[in-house]
Amino acid sequence: MRFPVFKTSKFTQLVFPLALAAFAGASTSAIAAVDADAAQALFKKNDCTKCHSVDKTKKGPSLKKIAAKYKGKADGQEKVTKNMTTGPKVKLEDGTEEDHKVIDTKDPAAIKNIADWILAQ
What we know:
By secondary structure, this protein is mainly alpha-helical. It has one domain: Cytochrome Bc1 Complex, Chain D, domain 2. It has a two-stranded antiparallel ribbon with strand order 1-2. Helix content is 52%, strand content 5%.
């Protein structure tokens, strides 16, 4: 069995990898575009710091613990967003339960940004 041989020019050998790298870079930067300052401001404005800290357990789990729980899971962002926007019952570190506070914004971009920021911890 013979396989077809494709001849490539020097132009193709140079341009194709550059185009591929540019595409990959553009895709990665779009995914990784978290506005940490805006997320932290919304986090503080909504008194999330009463129950959560970036790296210490308070009344609720630390953001690092939340991020670790959902790391690599396809529905991680959806679950973090649901907790912030629907006010479900949550189990606190001391074993008690209460309704999770609903974040005070209707801006889907701001909600996505804070969820991505939490998951990036």
